[in-house]
Amino acid sequence: MKKLSLLTGILVLFFTTSCRDIVNSVLDVLPPFDVPFGATVDVPFAAVNTATYTRTPEIPMNIDLNAKIKENNPNFSINNLKSVKLNTLSLDYVSSQGGNKLDVIKNARIYVKSHNQAERLIATAYNNTNPNTISFTLEDAEILEYFRTSQNYLIIEIQASRITADQIKMKMNAGFKIKVQL
After folding, report:
1. Are 176 and 87 in contact (CB under 8 A)?
2. Which is higher by pLDDT, 27 or 130?
3. Residue 181 and residue 109: Cα distance in Å, rounded?
4. d(CA 45, CA 1)
5. How many CB atoms are located within 10 Å of the residue 123 CB?
6. Rounded CA separation 17/154 (Å)
7. Average pLDDT of 147-169?
8. What does the longest C-alpha to C-alpha distance in the chain come to?
C-alpha cells in the first residue's frame, strides 16, 4: 500500500508540473518578443601596444523592461519576466577624427552591467578585418537579473590591430529576446 501511495504521489506531482509547463508554452498569452537597443558612441582609442585591451566608459542603455512588457500586454509586468538573452549585436562605423575605420579594432568584447550585478561577458569578436562593421559571436547567457532594473550598461573592451590614437564614432545595434510567462 505504501508503494502505491508513493507511486500515486509521484504521478500527481509529475502531472501537475507538466500541466503548468504546457499552459505556459501552449497558451502563452505573450509570446517572446525583441527589445532593440541602439546608440551612437564615441570611443576614445589610444593603443600604445596591440597586446592589451582598452575599456570604454559604461554605455547607459536604461532599458525599462517593465514598460516594454506593458506595451505588449498591460496584464504583465517585470514580475512575469522569465528570460532575457542577447540575440543580435553589431558595431557600425560612423566616422573618426584621425581617419581610422573599424579594422583598427582586432578583437572586441562586450559586457553587460547593472548596479546590483557584476559585469558579465555577453559577446566577442576576434580577428576583425572589416572596416565598416564588427559582427559579434553571442554568448548564450541568461542576463535576466541585469534587466530587473532600468539602470543597465554595456562596456566595450577593444584590442588594436595596430598602434594608433583616434576617436571613433560607432553605431551600436543590439537586440534582446524577452520571454514573459504567467
Report:
1. yes
2. 130
3. 31
4. 74
5. 23
6. 37
7. 90
8. 83
| pTM for this prediction | 0.79
C-alpha cell belonging to residue 66: 517593465
Which strand ranges, in their side-by-side order, compose the sheet holding 164-180? 33-47, 164-180, 81-96, 133-135
Q: Residue 164's beta-bridge partner residues?
A: 47
The C-alpha cell at 38 is 541602439
Burial of 27 (0-12, 13-18, 19+ CB in 10 A): exposed
At 169, list the grid cell. 564614432
Expressed in angstroms, the distance from the first to the final Cα of the chain is: 37
Per DSSP, the three-state class of 110 is strand
pLDDT > 70: what percent of the chain?
82
Q: Which three cell numbers stand for residue 154?
A: 554595456
Tens digit of each residue's pLDDT (9 = 90 or more) over 17-39: 655 555 544 445 568 999 999 99
Single out the residue of 77, 58, 60 nearest to residue 69, CA to CA: 77
| Structure-block grid coordinates of residue 82 | 522569465
How far apart, in whole angstroms, are the C-alpha atoms of residue 147 and residue 153? 10
